[in-house]
Amino acid sequence: MLRFLKISHFAVIDAIEVEFEPGFNVLTGETGAGKSILVEAVGLLLGGRASGDLVRTGEDAASIEAIFESDGEELVVRREITSQGRSRAFVNGALATAGALKDLSGRLIELHGQHEHQTLLDPATHLDVLDTFGRLDHLIAPARSAFETMRAAGEEVARVRRAVADRDARLELVTFQLGELDRAALKPGEPAEDAELAAARQVLASAERVERLCAESYTSLYESDEAILAGLGAVWRRVGELAALDPRFQPYLEARDGIKSQLEDLALFLRRYADGIEASPARLQQVEERLALLERLKRKYGPTLADVVARRDALRRELSDLEGGDERVAQLERDHAAAR
Fold this sequence. Notes:
Elements (H helix, E strand, L loop, with lengths): L1 E9 L2 E7 L15 H11 L15 E10 L2 E10 L4 E5 L2 E3 L1 H11 L17 H8 L3 H29 L1 H17 L9 H13 L1 H17 L4 H18 L4 H5 L1 H21 L4 H21 L3 H19 L1 H15 L1
Antiparallel strand pairs: 1-2, 1-3, 3-4, 4-5, 5-6
């Protein structure tokens, strides 16, 4: 409630202070005495539009200050208006905007005109008044839900219609991009193809050296006069004699079968690996071209090969939507009509 009002240099008022008591207060006076000016001053105090014309003639500025009581606390609101039309507002001594004052007005005061209630001028309150008058509160939530469903359906119809309008151009682009990705024959389950090809390129670029190293290692293990696997037999016989003298050699003796098996597996892998190398410029060129294609696709649709595969799948879905756009619009229009 309004407890105190102070006005200085406002319109025809030079200075006035009014204290309001709890309960009903009445201001009376002749026509032109300034009663309406007090109401206008309170309206400005609570966010009304300011104008330099409201400053008393001959004065540089006008000020309006009031003390309100809200929820047991006092709130001091002040507004200053210069003759140039600029204004400043303060709430409890802190600067505030006119918008902030309007937000405060709803819980501080209501102004009643001669024939109309101020809140009835706000269209935002009309539906609430009608619903309350008609005792329709229990229908508000279902009606709101139905309206939101209808609005969402209408927006989706509009969105799809726009998409269909741009469909031809988009369809051409999607078809081109999808064709580019499909020709690459990407494998969804092998997103590391680029890493595998990079490793293969490194081997193929050094094929002669790799073959030589494999051959030399295999010979050292199996085929030379001093082959490691052949010489291990003599080593294990000596270790067996040592184990008979000192049990600490026994664990190594027990591991001999595993060591022999590992060396035999290594020899077999070396021979197969060397035989499997396609040491030809044609194969290297093929790997280089495939890597170049994947790198180009990653730059365009990536950054990773998994992202490229995901982009291809997304384009397939979009192409399906574009090709079925008319049917989709028709279905959405039916949904929108049903929601109404």
